[in-house]
Amino acid sequence: MIKHLLLFFVFISFSVSANDFFRADTRTPSEIRQAGGLLPRGQQEAYERGTPININLYDHARGTVTGNTRYNDGYVSTTTTLRQAHLIGQNLLGSYNEYYIYVVAPAPNLFDVNGVLGRYSPYPSENEFAALGGIPLSQIIGWYRVSFGVIEGGMQRNRHYRRDLFQGLSVAPNHDGYHLAGFPDGFAAWRELPWSAFAPAACEHDYMVRILDACDSYTNRISKNDLFAFKRFMRIRSSLMILQSIEDDLQYNENKDEL
Predict the structure, then answer these.
(1) Model confidence over 15-65: pLDDT tens digits?
(2) DSSP per-residue codes, 171-203
(3) Residue 105, SS3?
(4) β-pairing verdict for 21-25 and 98-104
(5) What CATH number is associated with residue 171?
(6) Would you say residue 188 lies in a domain?
(7) Assigned domain for 8 exists
(8) What does UniProt give as the signal peptide span (predicted)?
(9) 0.85 cut: is pTM over it?
(10) Which is the catalytic residue, given 45, 128, 204, 247?
């Protein structure tokens, strides 16, 4: 009976939640482990090209004219359901014999693209949540293997997933993302609510008066601060978890000595 209960709780701990997110990707789990997570393309290529990472959400959502990811992209795309990720995978990765769908825990590094960009979201049907700076290995709950277009078996859990760190976290609220929208200089949205309340002076210029890269530079500077704040938050949370674990061990040993 105890064995059955343990198996039940293990299944519950690593089953897919309605709040989880999903990403179709050709990179294998071993490649993801080696890289330390799902890194954005911009982080992988920035060193080779010597160019800064673009963390404008609008640029990320649009991609390139061919529909591919920009070489300097600073986000990693996810969606809200396994089915949606599978559909996107078949559309973008259907030429591959094999790819994976990664299951991601919610956290404040995820931004609701439709919520932040509103009616200016270029592909609203994708229900995208974009991960600023990528997705660390510890945030990946597990993955599904897709072979010749078919999802094979159940989710394989990631033994490096830190449930203690990510349990109870939520995605970033929309109002935290408006200043990351990154619409071009003079774009109509900067004169509309809610974005007008977050528009820097560099982004409000008339269409005929443009300051090259002023709006992009502002958004990138702000988003880098947000990314730094998220990483600092996770380090603090991790430290608190370690301290709590030490305290629990000490309490356990004290109780054991009393017995």
Answers:
(1) 567 799 999 999 999 999 999 999 998 776 554 555 678 888 999 999 865
(2) PPPGGGTGGG--PPTT-GGGGSTTGGGG--GGG
(3) coil
(4) antiparallel
(5) 3.90.210.10
(6) yes
(7) no
(8) 1-18
(9) no
(10) 128
